[in-house]
Amino acid sequence: MHETIAFARVEGQVLLGAQDIYARGIAAQAVRRRIGMVFQQPNPLKMLSIFENVAIGMRLDGYGRAAIAERVELSLQAAALWDEVKDKLDHSGLALSGGQQQRLCVARAIALQPDVLLLDEPCSALDPVSTFKIEELLVELKQRYTIVIVTHNMQQAARIADRTMVFMVDRTQSRPLGVLVEEDVTNKIFTAPSDPRTEEYISGRVG
């Protein structure tokens, strides 16, 4: 997301399969085709219709008209949005509700059929009903995609995650750093964590 910014500094490796995506010679656009991203706030592209919001990645990738139309429909169906928007595909994506906008962003992210789908607190700005729909959608999509979701909602992690990683900030260092405290199957994390810091966090003693 930031490799073209002059002052950005990257340390270590980020592996996609066996490939370090920050290695020399790796094209940023090629990486972005393999990784879909859904942000905390729904962000439909303002000047584009519902159809074009989903189609834009395929247009940039050189897909033909028929292939785009088919993939847009399939992506909206996969995002559980097709039945709600199929008669107004030419309307602005901003005309949708917050939950619908977030599902539109999911459809846009999966249109190029990425290897991995990343979600940054995708339900934090949504009401409980919309949150439930997004969670239902993610449970369905994880059958087809590798999904990594960041959430501060422990109940959400317990409901939808197969494996859970607990990160905390180590404030004992001169420069506070995020550390991986524990990683395991979700049920074990929430019922019998190995690290006392995880137990303190899920019990509410620290936050």
According to CATH, the fold-level topology of the largest domain is: Rossmann fold
CATH top level assignment of the largest domain: Alpha Beta
- Strand arrangement within the widest β-sheet reads 3-4-5
Task: Give the termini separation.
Answer: 29 Å
**Structural shape:** globular
Strand element count: 7
Radius of gyration: 19 Å
User: Share of helix among residues?
Assistant: 40-55%
Task: Extract low-pLDDT stretches.
Answer: none
Total count of domains: 2
Largest sheet: 3 strands, parallel
Mean pLDDT: 91
Structural class: alpha/beta
How many helical elements?
9
Properties at a glance:
single chain, 207 residues, alpha/beta, Rossmann fold, 2 domains, 3-stranded parallel β-sheet, two-stranded antiparallel sheet, 9 helices, 7 strands, 40% helix, 17% strand, globular
Structure notes:
With 207 residues, the chain is of the alpha/beta class. The chain has 2 domains: 15-161, 3-Layer(aba) Sandwich (Rossmann fold), CATH 3.40.50.300; 163-207, no CATH class. The protein is 40% helix and 17% strand. The chain has 9 helices and 7 strands; from the N terminus they run ββαβααααβαβαββαα. The chain has helices at residues 28-34, 50-60, 65-78, 82-85, 98-110, 128-141, 154-160, 186-191, 196-202; strands at residues 15-16, 19-20, 35-38, 116-120, 146-150, 163-170, 177-185. It has a 3-stranded parallel beta sheet. Strands 1-2 form a two-stranded antiparallel ribbon. Strands 6-7 form a two-stranded antiparallel sheet. The mean pLDDT is 91.
